[in-house]
Specification:
This protein is mostly helical and about 80 residues long. It is about 75% helix and about 0% strand. Helix 1 runs antiparallel to helix 2. The longest helix has 17 residues. The radius of gyration is 12 Å and the shape is globular.
């Protein structure tokens, strides 16, 4: 996912913006073959403020995507595990 894709999400409507940004960030992260600690921190810094604003479907999508990821961000996985089912 390119930076222009993220810019497009940022200027889109407010209603779905948090969901789209949350999903796009996790999808981009999962495409990394071996993410470094800084990339994990960046994802968590972006995802945590959005977490309460995103839909249950987006949380399910992210959980499924991270389940396929070799090096998932541990704090985000714990936050997903603590979420209501």
């Amino acid at each position: 996912m390119s930076s222009s894709d993220f810019r497009q999400i940022a200027i889109s409507g407010e209603t779905e913006r948090a969901d789209r940004l949350f999903r796009a960030a996790v999808s981009a992260f999962c495409s990394l073959t071996r993410p470094c600690g800084r990339e994990i921190e960046q994802l968590e810094d972006l995802a945590f403020p959005l977490f309460d604003a995103v839909s249950v479907e987006s949380k399910r999508y992210v959980a499924a995507a991270l389940s396929e990821c070799t090096y998932p961000p541990p704090a985000l996985v714990r936050r997903l595990c603590d979420a209501t089912v």
